[in-house]
Amino acid sequence: METKIRNRFILGGLVLLFMVYNIFLYTKPISASPVQYLSDNALKGETLWQENNCIACHQFYGLGGYLGPDLTNIISNPKKGADYAKAFFNSGIKSMPKFNFSEKEKKLLASFLKEVDQTGFYPNRDVEFENSGWVTIKYK
Fold first, then answer.
1. Preceding amide of 123 cis, omega within 30
2. Checking CA distances to 105, which of 51, 67, 91, 134 falls within 20 to 30 Å?
3. What's the fold here for domain 40-117?
4. What is the pLDDT of residues 38-83, one digit of tens each?
5. Which of 120, 119, 107 is nearest to 44 (CA)?
6. 3-class DSSP state for residue 117?
7. Three-state DSSP class for 59?
8. Quick one: pLDDT at residue 32?
9. Burial class (CB in 10 A: 0-12, 13-18, 19+), 70
10. What is the pTM of this model?
């Protein structure tokens, strides 16, 4: 009889400990990394990007279509930049369709591409490989 009481006491203690642990774990605020929001102009540029289905041909970080170039870092590329990107928005060269964006819309798209550019590098070749298999990446 004494063993049953002791086992119930241990089981009750474990259940109580489990409940306290879950309350502590699931009621504390989440401390996530700060969210990076786009500016109003970049959001409008993103809307233009989506409405014109640019992702069907272009990529960010290698994800998207494969007909056009990856545009992750086109703005910070020293041989290209915002003016280069704006020149191609309406050009319709090769397989890129000819769009009729206004100057304001071109600025909005360039603003969106600029803020995407600030999120990181692609392809990022500045990495360190450790023997454990862990990869340390340099971010912008």
1. yes
2. 67
3. Cytochrome Bc1 Complex; Chain D, domain 2 (1.10.760)
4. 899 999 999 999 999 999 999 999 899 999 899 999 999 999 999 9
5. 107
6. helix
7. strand
8. 64
9. middle
10. 0.66
Contact (Cβ atoms closer than 8 angstroms) between residue 60 and residue 70: yes
Token pair recorded at residue 73: 């870092």
Q: Tell me what the mean pLDDT of segment 89-102 comes to.
A: 86
Structure tokens at 94: 């090769």
Region 110-132: what's the mean pLDDT? 85
Question: Residue 91 pLDDT > 80, yes or no?
Answer: yes
Q: 94: phi > 0 → left, psi -120 to 50 → alpha, else beta; which?
A: left
SS (H, E, C) 75-102: CCCCCCCHHHHHHHHCCCCCCCCCCCCC
What distance in Å separates the CA atoms of residue 109 and residue 82, rounded to the nearest whole number?
Answer: 9
The C-alpha angle 34, 37, 40, rounded to 5 degrees, equals 160
Distance, CA of 30 to CA of 5 (rounded, Å):
40
Residue 64 carries which side chain, given as an amino acid letter?
Answer: G
What ranges do the domains of the chain cover?
Answer: 40-117
Q: Which helix (H) or strand (E) holds 64?
A: strand 63-64
